[in-house]
Task: structure prediction
Amino acid sequence: MKQGVTGSAAAGLTIVSRDAREHGADVRPLSLSLYARLFRYTRACAAKRNVLFVTVLLRAGQSAVIPWMMASTINGPIRNGDWLGLLRWLTALALFTLFTQVTLHFRQRLAFELGESVVHDLRRDLFRHMMEMPMSYFNRTRPGLLINRFTSDVEAVRNGVQNVVFASLVNLGGMLVAAGFMVYYDRGLFLVVLATAPILWGLNRIFRTRLSQAHRAVQESFSRVTATVSESVRGVRVTQSFNRWARNAQMFHDLVFDHSWFNIRVTQTESLYLPLMDLNGQFFLAALLILGGYRVLYGVGTTTIGDLVQFFFLAGTFFNPIHSLANHYNQALTAMASAERIFRFLDTPPDWTEPPADGRSPVTEGQVELDGVSFAYVPDRPVLRNLSFSVKPGASVALVGPTGSGKTTLLHLIAKFYIPTAGVLRIDGRDIVTLNGGDLRRSYGIVLQQNFLFSGTVLDNIRMGRPEATESEVREAARRLDCLDVFDALPNGLQTRVGEQGAGISLGERQLICFARAMLVNPRILLLDEATSAVDALTEARLQAALERLLVGRTSFVIAHRLSTVRNADRILVLDRGRLVEDGTHRDLVRRDGLYARLYREFMLAQSEETIRKKNRRAGDSVRPQ
Amino acid sequence: MGGKDRCRLGSGWLWVQEDVKDEDRAHTGEETGNWPVIRRLLDLTWRYRLACIRMIVFHFVLLGLTVLSLGMTGRGIDYIRHAISVSEGRVPPPSWPFGLAPPAHWPPMAVLFLLGGIIVLLALIRSVVTYLNNLNSVRLTQQGLVVDLRAAVYDKLQRLSFRFFDDKASGTLITRVTSDVQNVRLFVDGVVVQTFIFSASALTYFWYMFRIHRGLTLLSLTVWPFIALGSSVFSRKVKKAYRKNRDLTDEMILGVSEQIQGMYVTKGFSREADAEARFAARNAAVRNQKFLIFQFVTIYGPSMELLTRLTVLGVLAYGGWLTFHGQLPLGEGLIVFLGLLQRLTDQVNVLTTITDSVQQSLTSARRLFEILDMEPEVRSPPQPVRRRLGGKIRFEHVSFCYTPGALVLEDIHFEVQPGECIGILGGTGAGKSTLLSLIPRFYDVTGGCVFLDDVDVRRLDLDALRRQVGFVFQESFLFSNTVAANIAFGRPEATRGDIERAARLACAHEFIQAMPQGYDTVLYEGGGNLSGGQRQRLALARAILLEPPILLLDDPTAAVDAETEHEILEAIESARAGRTTFLVTHRMHALGRMDRILVLHRGRQVQWGTHEELMAVRGPYRRAARIQLGDMLDVSAGLGGSAA
Result:
């Protein structure tokens, strides 16, 4: 088929098709353990489930009883001209039908509700598990693929529970009861029915593998489609400024077209499979006519024309479900593939296990100590190598180093977003591994590069770390940061709504919000990653001053590129390719004339000669202390 | 087949009703009636009429086969009854279709074999037709409709103006391209075609039943008004519920997606419990609302079925009476009639499915058309000017607002000569990014004019314009592709040599070389495996590769460390040669190198001139400079100290 398309799509807009192979070669037969696990999700509403099973049993019986009653009505009163008998039968049938439909109502409703509840619980567990995953997981996982667990996969499972399982059980039960009736009326003829069983079994076997492979292919290519759309929407501004519409559109078209081929393959397989199953039922009818006719005509056995009529009615109950069973079977495959992915995610252990939370922060002093700490995101590519230092409570530390020297990673380790590959990191003398990350971070104020804001109001975002804070507390925090007027100048002040990814708010404003957010929690330990960079000079100067006051009494680690922050820090740690190369105050380090002094001079050289001259000229004007 | 249809779709139907629609929307708001939407959906169906007709034909064949084989079994039973009671003459012989009775001298078993053979033969034909039909319909839906619709929505999404994305959540946009598209195509195969098939089947069955017995047919008809009434009441009720459900689900998924992106914030502030509670509430809201829908659905379905079942009983009573009086044969009459009625009842389910599908497809179509109809705010003019720009830029009393009444830029007025380098300074919210966005027409001005080479930007060919303007955003989005492909984003045919040259100019070559697979290293979505400075340098390389006469840099050093900032500024220095460059920055030393500086404050142009000019006068520029100069003073003092 059109396999080449995958290749061309892969080379272009995204490589989603390349890395989305997260499900690799995992085509394996349906496993009982998966069923069992899904079944466990019905425990939460066990009563509902049990009633549902009762209605399923009732429905199974009913589905065969009705045709039996109909045939009996025809064979008995109608054939014999028994008018009263007919009315009696029909009244019974009417009552029975009412009963059937009431049962059906509950059967459907309970199955729907059960499915929805299972899905609800699955989503709950997915979310909970997702929250348990450490940051390291999110940094290596495509958001789109993770979201698919919540959308298409959960949807497939829902379909499996709501529309497949119980309907299939009813059908199967109906078949069994119909079989019982048939055995009762004519054992010989029923053997003919049974003769079709091996054929059905064989067909099933042949098509099962093919179908399950095809279904998986569909799902995976669909994941690629959604992931690509997601990325395209996020990158749309770039696309527009680079005129990439046409090409992107072509690639997306190829990707979708590619996906459609997988769909077609599924249909091809199904359309071979289902008609073959159907054909089987027709063979049976023909056989019934010929064999049954023979037995009736020549008086072989005890078959009567009435039995034959019964068989024709029951044959419907017996064969019609096969069609929908086969259909359901396919849906079950899809559901199982999805359930498997969901459970695989649920079974992915977090990179480490957090000790239990007790809701209280373990940080009292804010002392941070590293002892031979090394870290690697990928084995054999260490980002931090053998770091050892100790920071006194309340000290402010500036992290300095070239790009890629591991400053951000160091912050992530202190925040316990990652844990050291080797060595020990202690907070207040206790190994960070023994502390619950959530409890630990209660005492942290963290501002990272991304400046992420949730949709909601500015106020909500600032209150993120302490939702119970009143608006006046928030205003107070903003005042202390000296940026209250910036917030008040927003269209609706603190009530201004923030769109997804903080749209509608400038980068600088976003950063101030992140700052206020961190300050509101009154942290013992402050982690700032290049936090002041996007704020304009005037705002920053105020922020700087406010920060200086706020840093007092808190242990702080700052990756800043404002020299004043670096210079004012109690201590400067200079990192180079993951190693701690220098450690001391600004004055010490400048004197040592090592990497710091070099970086510093480079920074200085960046200033034009002219500017330096100017600034020297204006030295007298300077009002800066120090 | 599909190829031709698709071409027509690509150019045609998206634009067909545009003019009408915009007017419509303006007057009726978002709640447009069903008819315009349905009309458009029908129009869409018409584009695929060939495949649709083929689908209907296949279904007719299938229908005929069903009716034929249904008659066969009844006939078989009657024949057996006739054969065993032939001596008594009580049971009349069955009638044969088209008068094709088997010769009377055939033994009964031969006739039965013939009947059996016909049943099997019909079944075989049926299988083949089913196969062909399924393939036809999947080609129509998945390969024709869905591919075309998805491509159309995607293309539209890409072209929509920035303003559209400013307040749209990406989660809901994804739903447009995925499930909404599927629902819209459902209108074609699930509604239009199914309606045809439904009416045809129902009519056929009726016709056949009518031929068997009029009274019985009329009796079974009585229930249909109730079904019709029930279904219309139902569809009205359920429609609203489904729409609400969709919104709730969107909100929930949006929450998840946002949560993933903001994970570090939640974790950083230990608010996992809150996040879980928020999600739990949304999750439960979806479930509870679904429960309501289930109540509707499960009352509606079974009660409709009850109605039809009761009809069957009526038929049995009346039909029974008729057989007693010899007015109706048992097998070929009553049994076949019941069989037909059964099929008709199945058609009721089809009807329910169709009403369901109508709901779904209308809801989705509304949302899809909303996007397809959206006129990209910024479009090429009808007779665009296409030229190589020299780089002269003039703003003439430009004002701009995102929302009416709230001016973001006001009376901006300046002129820049080719090759000049302009620095822009301003506080947060001063309108710096907005000002840059007006040059490549990401937005159109509200008042005044922007001229490039003395031509109004709105008269330039949009593609050509943007190709000649290199843009580096505050935060640069990189795609999950190789480094090389990211740099070549605007010119995919660029050679490796071009790419490396651009990377070198942007001071990115070195770190790219150090990456595991160099230029072929695959980036995570958004460039997650790069530092901020590296991302910006790649973005700069991406812009430089286009050799643009105009280079716009929106605070590219905002999120990088001092060392990288120095490198980026160096890179800009080398890249700006021969280009008109705008640089938004807060860094005084960078501004000091600019030919001229524009100072913005709350959307107004407060200062405009060279560094020297601005330093000579009291004003925001000098104030900002002094604050930073204070910094540098300390630096030089520190250096001096170390030297001493």
Notes: The first helix of chain A runs from residue 4 to 10. Confidence is low (pLDDT under 50) at residues 1-29, 606-626 of chain A.
